[in-house]
Amino acid sequence: MEQIREDEEILLLSLKDPSYFSVIIDRYEGSFLKVAFGIVRSRQEAEDIVQETFTKIYVNGARFKKQPDARFKSWAYKILMNTAFTHYQKLKRIGGKTEYLDTVFYDEEGEGIVGEVGDFGKVSDAKALVSDVIGKMPEHLGRLLRLYYLEDKSYRDIAVVEKISMSTLKMRLFRAKRLFKKLSVE
After folding, report:
1. How many CA atoms lie within 13 A of 83 on its CB side?
2. End-to-end CA separation in angstroms for the chain
3. Where do runs of H (alpha helix) occur along 94-165?
4. Which structural domain range is residue 161 located in?
5. Beta partners for residue 112, in sequence order
6. N or C: which end of the chain has fewer CB within 10 A?
7. Is 79 part of any domain?
8. Same domain, yes or no, for 105 and 144?
9. What is the pLDDT of residues 92-142, one digit of tens each?
10. What is the pLDDT of residues 52-95, one digit of tens each?
């Protein structure tokens, strides 16, 4: 394990010898925590999201297929973002307070957590992945996800803006989330 290997190769090796998976954890844990914290604004919740993400990556590792336009990194970030958004939705349902500032760049004490220029690129990569997936969706479904998750609008506010009933909104959000998950894994 001493020689530097590509993430895809390490993932395949970890399926036979789980000790190799620690290399992937070491490479991605810090940036995953920053992205998850930027979504849920809680260090403990972010750690839960990252742990769940790594579990999903390992369990689904055999299904990953390296392609010229899809590398391990983008696949892993899609899993992270899906897990984080699902977790965020759960927090919203149970009444968790979530704020949106430029959240990824601040910790709980208000001090910056992004220390290197490269970290901004990782955050941009994650945001680009989410925007890319939403961009592939029909406009009306993508707009609902943006309003609900990224702009933190309530069901009532979205229904008023979209001029639709609450039941129509719930059904469209259900479809949008399902489509988002499907497009994220492709």
Report:
1. 24
2. 30
3. 117-136, 139-145, 155-162
4. 137-186
5. 106
6. C
7. yes
8. no
9. 777 644 444 344 444 444 444 444 434 445 555 666 677 778 888 899 998
10. 999 999 999 988 887 776 788 888 988 999 899 888 888 777 76
SS3 75: helix
CATH code of the domain in which 150 resides: 1.10.10.10
Question: Using an 8 Å Cβ cutoff, are 119 and 34 in contact?
Answer: yes
Closest by CA to 180, choosing from 144, 146, 134, 139, is 134
Please, which residues have CB within 8 angstroms of residue 30's CB and are 6 or more apart in sequence? none
- Residue 31 contacts by C-beta under 8 Å, 6 or more apart in sequence? 119, 122
Q: Are residues 58 and 109 in the same domain?
A: yes
Domain count, the chain: 2
Please state the pTM of the whole predicted model: 0.53
Rg of the chain in Å (alpha carbons):
17
- Top-confidence range, 5-9, 23-27, 119-123: 23-27
106 & 142 share domain: no
